[in-house]
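Input (structure):
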């Protein structure tokens, strides 16, 4: 059975690896760029699962499935490839600011406990004792999620590609899928690329922003629009606070992410297109994110900026993210796209869903 996967960000790579475990599938992945170049390459890799406010339905199930799968997936990929994937197992610390509703967090902690997960509510004294780098009069406490994680999205994607290659998956980078064949009997039988046509029994569209044009050509347009995110890497030369306890810290949607060696990622902005549809990086917004990070951890003011980067996140218009499942009217074209800000978090669960669609339970 021939499987064509269009798009090799973290989601496409995760699907390729997941399907590579299934005997009898011939899997080919197409991307006009090298892997992890678009939104994946700009992501901070903070896996906001247990500490998210999603508590039921598909949104929670996807998060829980992914958080569980990452615990086995990372060592699995490291053993297969021989590469280390930076994977921070020290949890996520979400700072509570003055106006925040602590009762809501306490309620969430009870729900998580009943679901078999942990969340800890810290008062200001405990926070100061454990994470002295957090020093802001606006912070009244924190919620600590020991089972959430952070990882390097690019290292993860490259490892997924290499592991899938070892299991027989073919990758074509620098090859653009120009169109999908005209449907016959509610099926599309091939993808048309810059290097010719490839027969396909199943076609999986995991092309992020590129999904719009592909689905429009099939008269089933899935409208996915760009939201720009900027981030920066700073270097202090030493860890903030306790060097043995370096969780990812989040406050007011600003992430401070330790990446080792006294370096931190800070981000990310959320920038929508202007009326013309254009979107350009706003330096003032990036500076604002940096200043908010410094307000939470004042020592960051002395850090030097190593690099800044940005990427476009794929946000579905008029429907919730992500878009996973059959393209309406076509029984063998599957969508795994439009993950917006949660592509890295939800990649393993998305891959599991696609596998179940193709081979059943």
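Output (sequence):
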């Amino acid at each position: 059975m021939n499987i064509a996967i269009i798009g090799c960000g973290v989601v496409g790579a995760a699907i390729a690896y997941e399907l590579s475990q299934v005997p009898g599938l011939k899997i080919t992945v197409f991307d006009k760029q090298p892997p992890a170049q678009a939104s994946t390459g700009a992501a901070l890799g903070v896996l906001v699962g247990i500490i998210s406010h999603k508590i039921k339905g598909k949104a929670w199930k996807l998060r829980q499935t992914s958080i569980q799968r990452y615990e086995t997936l990372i060592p699995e990929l490291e053993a297969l490839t021989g590469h280390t994937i930076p994977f921070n197992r020290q949890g996520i610390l979400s700072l509570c600011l003055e106006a925040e509703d602590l009762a809501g967090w306490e309620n969430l902690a009870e729900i998580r406990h009943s679901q078999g997960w942990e969340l800890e509510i810290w008062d200001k004294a405990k926070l100061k004792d454990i994470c002295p780098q957090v020093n802001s009069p606006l912070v009244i406490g924190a919620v600590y999620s020991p089972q959430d994680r952070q990882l390097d999205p690019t290292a993860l994607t490259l490892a997924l590609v290499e592991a899938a290659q070892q299991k027989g998956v073919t990758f074509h980078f620098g090859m653009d899928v120009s169109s999908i064949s005209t449907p016959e009997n509610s099926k599309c039988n091939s993808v048309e690329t810059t290097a010719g046509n490839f027969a396909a029994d199943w076609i999986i569209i995991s092309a992020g922003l590129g999904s719009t044009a592909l689905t429009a050509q099939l008269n089933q347009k899935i409208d996915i629009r760009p939201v720009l995110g900027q981030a920066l890497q700073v270097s202090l030369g030493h860890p903030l606070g306790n060097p043995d306890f370096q969780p990812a810290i989040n406050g007011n949607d600003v992430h401070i992410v330790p990446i080792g060696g006294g370096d931190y990622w800070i981000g990310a902005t959320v920038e929508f297109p202007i009326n013309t549809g254009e979107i350009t990086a706003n330096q003032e917004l990036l500076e604002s994110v940096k200043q908010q990070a410094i307000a939470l951890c004042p020592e960051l003011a002395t850090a030097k900026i190593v690099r800044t980067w940005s990427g476009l996140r794929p946000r579905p218009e008029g429907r919730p993210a992500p878009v996973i499942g059959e393209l309406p009217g076509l029984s063998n074209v599957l969508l795994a796209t439009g993950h917006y800000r949660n592509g890295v978090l939800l990649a393993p669960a998305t891959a599991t869903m696609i596998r179940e669609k193709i081979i059943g339970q």
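Notes: The first helix runs from residue 10 to 19. The CA atoms of residues 90 and 244 lie 9 Å apart.
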